[in-house]
Amino acid sequence: MTTLDATTATVRPEPPLAGDEVETLLGSLERQRATFAWKAGELDDEALGLTLGPSSMTLGGLLKHLALVEDEVFTKALLGRPLPAPWDKVDWELQPDWEWTSAANDSAEQLYALWRSAVLRSRDAVRRALAADGLDHPADVMFADGRPTLRRLVVDMIEEYARHTGHADLLRESIDGLVGEDPPAHNPTWPGV
Questions:
Q1: 129 domain-assigned
Q2: What Pfam families does its record include (predicted)?
Q3: How confident is the model at residue 193, as a pLDDT?
Q4: Which range of residues forms the domain containing residue 78?
């Protein structure tokens, strides 16, 4: 089974070829996280703030956005807990894109730490939900068309990472030419987070 707390592993996560549903979904999510970490990893403040073409998107903005989405999906939607700092102090009505725009004011170290801590909180939330009800664990949030399960939230997060890892791929190539589909098998930028 894919470990949710392998914070010292440097081997690229890979979903099992013949795993069960939990192993496959969590393995896929961890692979997406690892690929994103590789594309966004080991850059300085300046590189994280670079844009490509007419887009205002940056790798720093992606790091902060994905940290927010991790917390929105697994801390708030799944567990029903309030968003932690820094999200709890933002007036989202006045600044709906705050995570994207404010990333320019953060250092690389702050952005990496924010993303890593959000991923660790998410892993803990998923672990708790799996222990309670497996992938059928109902989320705390209720949508107009019903209450999602943990299964649905994990699929949503895989989609979120897949979309933004594509963006990160283009941004990173424009910064230093780094290309490739998968990080190296022993990737120092992937210490489990």
A1: yes
A2: MST
A3: 55
A4: 21-176
Position 10 in a domain: no
CB 175 within 8 A of CB 47: yes
* CATH code, 130: 1.20.120.450
- Averaged pLDDT of the chain: 90
CA–CA distance, 39 with 19 (Å, rounded to integer):
27
pTM reported for the whole predicted model: 0.90
Confidence label for 46 from pLDDT (cuts 50, 70 and 90):
very high
CB atoms under 10 Å from CB of 157, counted, come to 22
Q: Give the separation between CA 2 and CA 23, rounded to whole angstroms.
A: 6
In this prediction, residues 108-133 reach a mean pLDDT of 97
Cα 127–Cα 41–Cα 10 angle in degrees, nearest 5: 55
Whole-angstrom Cα distance, residue 104 to residue 2? Answer: 34
Spatial separation of the C-alpha atoms in residues 101 and 188, rounded to whole Å: 29
On the question of pLDDT at 113 being above 80, the answer is yes
Which residues have a Cβ under 8 Å from the Cβ of 19 and sit 6 or more positions away?
Answer: 1, 2, 27
Write down the pLDDT at residue 183: 75
> Does residue 46 lie in a domain region?
yes
Q: Which residues in the chain belong to E strands, given as ranges?
A: none
Question: Within a domain: residue 85?
Answer: yes
* Cβ(138)–Cβ(94) below 8 Å: no
Q: Is the pLDDT of residue 2 over 60?
A: no
What sign has the CA pseudo-torsion 26, 126, 140, 66?
Answer: negative
Res 78: pLDDT: 98
